[in-house]
Amino acid sequence: MDLSLSAEDQAFQDEVRRFLDDNLSEDLREAGAKTGGVFADFAAGLRWHKVLARRGWSAPSWPQEYGGTGWNATQRYIFARECTAVDAPRIFSMGLRMVGPVIMKFGTPEQKAKYLPKIVAGDITFCQGYSEPGSGSDLASLKTRAVRDGDDYVINGTKIWTTGAHVADHMFCLVRTAAEGKPQDGISFVLIDSMQTPGLSVKPIVTLAGDHEVNQVFFDNVRTPVANRIGPENAGWTVAKYLLEFERGGDAYTPNLYARIEDVRRIAREEAADGSGRLIEERGFAERLAEAEIAIQALEMIELQVLSDLSKGRNPGAVSSQMKIRGSETLQALDHLGVEALAWYAAPFEPEARTMGRNEPTVVPDLGLTAMPLYLNNRAATIYAGSNEIQRNIVAKAVLAL
Ligand SMILES: Cc1cc2nc3c(=O)[nH]c(=O)nc-3n(C[C@H](O)[C@H](O)[C@H](O)COP(=O)(O)OP(=O)(O)OC[C@H]3O[C@@H](n4cnc5c(N)ncnc54)[C@H](O)[C@@H]3O)c2cc1C
């Protein structure tokens, strides 16, 4: 694969850089740089989403007819690399990345018209209601029940680990609509138009790094219209699986990994090695950094291939599982190096230092403010979006035919 940029690609890169210079304000950049979890501060991310939407750039992977950019795979990759390189906030993207493509494929014309333009514009945000206590890897065993009552479904049950349920205003949700037959055959995919719907409540779960990103959601006779079902009743499993391929493979991992390795390098240039000199020059550390960089480059090759397939309308298939495994494991290796480079400065617990606008002195040097939070939060990267053990099972079956 030829990875050198053509003159046209370079012109595009310049255009993106100019746009970022002109539009990524200092406070948005701060929000990006202080991200200690998966997504940037929600409000800042939403502001950035709207800036991108005004330029027509909020949905790089969507077809143009639905408000996408029409970029080819290389352009999309360039855009992602340029954004992460300057700490643009990571947008809360479950609408753009997950439910949007699902609505395009399985939605009715009315559903497309109702949701897609608002997702692109950042006027509505979705959270993902798949997992339940006892139904994570074994998702088909889910128990949250939806019973038809006139033109509505009435939903009872609970979802857990729901990222951003406290900030999103919509939810896409898997519910059980039939108890007979195979568990997979009794599931439907429905949308809930407001997280304020009567009977719906959200309870925070604070994670290891002290951040509130995930929640448990309870449904007590929550009503949603039958018209909000995507795809036929009891065919939700097919819809759910399609979405998971995008969750695992729809976005490139490597732009973020390149930004993270640069963070580690910056820390290692500042910190002293055990003997003499800087850590970046210490042989053992330098070798591990090089190994991580090689892993990123190898993953980049696969990602560019997948992006190219996606832009031709092919969905990623089982290769998205391979990307998820390699991406999350490389991320954790980088987090480990970051914490090791900071040594004891990684330890102080200063979550308030990562709030927007705060500039009081901290024990942890500025460069390392997110090292430990990312290390702790990204322990979950090998669990969420389907655990890596499950991804290995998929690769074994679908790729190796074992
Ligand atoms: C930070 C975070 C954010 C999340 N966000 C969301 C969200 O927004 N929406 C949502 O719906 N869900 C979300 N999840 C849930 C996530 O998808 C599940 O945690 C995940 O699917 C694993 O399910 P589980 O937690 O029930 O673990 P289990 O399924 O109980 O697994 C426990 C362990 O057993 C292993 N295991 C299970 N079955 C097998 C098998 N057949 N073969 C080999 N090993 C196996 C697993 O790999 C894991 O190590 C999130 C999770 C986390 C941690």
Largest sheet: 4 strands, mixed
Order of helices and strands: HHHHHHEEEEEEEEHHHHHH
Evaluate the radius of gyration: 22 Å
The N- and C-terminal alpha carbons lie at a distance of 30 Å
CATH class of the largest domain: Mainly Alpha
Any idea how many domains? 3
CA-based shape: globular
Describe the structure in your own words.
There is one protein chain. This protein is α+β, with helices and mostly antiparallel strands and 402 residues long. It folds into three domains: 87 residues, Butyryl-Coa Dehydrogenase, subunit A, domain 1; 110 residues, Butyryl-CoA Dehydrogenase, subunit A, domain 2; 149 residues, Butyryl-CoA Dehydrogenase, subunit A, domain 3. It contains twelve helices and eight strands. The strands form two sheets. It has a four-stranded mixed β-sheet. It has a four-stranded antiparallel β-sheet with strand order 2-3-7-6, with no helix packed on it. Strand 6 and strand 7 form a beta hairpin. Helix 5 runs antiparallel to helix 6 and helix 5 packs across helix 7. It is globular and about 75 Å long. The chain starts with 6 loop residues before the first helix and ends with a helix. The model has no long low-confidence stretch (mean pLDDT 92). It binds flavin-adenine dinucleotide. The site of flavin-adenine dinucleotide has 18 residues, from strand 1 and helix 12.
Short description:
This protein has helices at 7-23, 26-33, 42-55, 73-85, 94-106, 109-121, 236-249, 254-270, 283-311, 319-342, 371-377, 388-399, and strands at residues 126-129, 145-149, 152-160, 170-176, 187-192, 200-206, 212-225, 229-230.
